[in-house]
Amino acid sequence: MKKTILITGCSSGIGYCTAHALHKRGYRVFATARRQQSVEMLLSEGLESLRLDLDDSASIQQAFQDIMHRTGGELYALFNNGAYGLPGAVEDLSREALRAQFETNVLGWLELTNLVLPIMRKQGYGRIIQNSSVLGFAAMPFRGAYNASKYAIEGLSDTLRLELMDSQIFISLIEPGPIATQFRANALKALQKYINVENSAHRDKYLAVLNRLNKPGPAVPFTLPPEAVLKRVIHALEARKPQPRYYVTFPTYLFGFLKRFLSVRLLDRLLAKAGNNN
Ligand SMILES: NC(=O)c1ccc[n+]([C@@H]2O[C@H](COP(=O)([O-])OP(=O)(O)OC[C@H]3O[C@@H](n4cnc5c(N)ncnc54)[C@H](OP(=O)(O)O)[C@@H]3O)[C@@H](O)[C@H]2O)c1
């Protein structure tokens, strides 16, 4: 029998690449997307696709029930992937903006995970893969909302791993640095929606942020294609004992190393510099 996997955020980037590659590899992939137009596109490309908007509990429940119906109540893996970045200084974040960031990046993932876990417990196996980020353990200026959401995912995943220790359900975090996707274009939309640049004490610094987000092609050095993440997803799915954490890209390895060995003050200086330059 084919292994089944539910993936969120398949309209572009890492989700899109992973859905197609795993389908080709023989998996039965449920490639979900929040917009109907993206679902139509994925269907036309030969994938099994359903609508799933992480901001909407009814849509999460509906997609989950549909998939359970189609598989007879089985699911091998969940790849929590759909998310976006809201750039902006912490002091410019409204309650509404931070809530929106957490609705998608944290609460939607948790709700879906908690639907899938009883199925995995019942069948006695399962894999949950969380697409976190280097920004899930290293903070950078003007990324507070996104940092906080990925730190939250790391905290929940680390706890869940302990709670699943006596089971055959494995949870893995993937921590990519820069990957060439629609991420920056979508971050720009979020910034325009939620941040009042003109009224900000950081007004001038936002020009650099906007420059970075508008720049065509890779914005920063060491950017890798989504296939770099795919490689770790395959390991997390197929290794007998998947790793709790997978680093992807040089910046993740670098900051992972520096975080272990530098003082907080010294690391802050490097992160501030890297964040402001990028
Ligand atoms: N690119 C990077 O440099 C990078 C680095 C580290 C981690 N990541 C992580 O990688 C994951 C995928 O991002 P990506 O780089 O592939 O960016 P992307 O091309 O922008 O893809 C993000 C996907 O998430 C979907 N999404 C957004 N809001 C959603 C919602 N409410 N419900 C369901 N899906 C939603 C988007 O759908 P729409 O098209 O409808 O907006 C899109 O399919 C994210 O978790 C991101 O945090 C990315």
TrEMBL record:
PROSITE patterns tied to this protein: ADH_SHORT (PS00061)
> What positions belong to coiled-coil segments?
none
Cited CDD domains: 17beta-HSD-like_SDR_c
Keywords in UniProt for this one?
Oxidoreductase
- Pfam families, per the entry: adh_short
User: What GO MF annotations does this protein's record show?
Assistant: oxidoreductase activity
Is the keyword Oxidoreductase assigned to this protein?
yes
Highest taxon of the lineage: Bacteria
NCBIfam families named among the record's database cross-references:
PRK05993.1
| Family stated for the protein in its record | Belongs to the short-chain dehydrogenases/reductases (SDR) family.
UniProt protein name: Short-chain dehydrogenase
Q: Which organism is it from?
A: Nitrosomonas nitrosa
Report the gene name: ybbO
